[in-house]
Amino acid sequence: KAPAADRTKRFSPRTGLRRLADPGRCAILAALGSGGPATATDLAGRLPITRQAIVGFFCKSACLSSRRTDL
């Protein structure tokens, strides 16, 4: 795999739409849409998806904030 910086350079709208079509990713986005901000651990507790898979989704989509906030 290419380093993360190289992967983000190759991002295209088509790639993004293909990733969003994944049922697991749809479930993550639906949970965030209905429940508001959440940590990967919170989402893993609500969904049949591992915490690692959730973090991987956010890293690939460049949506992850590593900053801690009060939810």
Write structural notes for this entry.
The chain is mainly α and 71 residues long. It has 5 helices and no strands. Helix 4 packs across helix 5. The termini are far apart. The mean pLDDT is 75.
Q: Can you summarize this structure?
A:
This protein has 71 residues and is mainly alpha-helical. Helix content is 63%, strand content 0%.
How is the topology of this model organized?
Elements: H1 4-9, H2 13-20, H3 23-35, H4 40-46, H5 51-61
Helix pairs in contact: 4-5
Distance between the termini: 34 Å
Number of strands: 0
State the major sheet: none
Q: Tell me the β content.
A: under 5%
Helix content: 55-70%
> With helices defined by DSSP (H or I, 4 residues minimum), what is the helix count?
5
Residue runs with pLDDT of under 50 for 5 or more positions: none
Record keyword descriptors for this entry.
single chain; 71 residues; mainly alpha; 63% helix; 0% strand
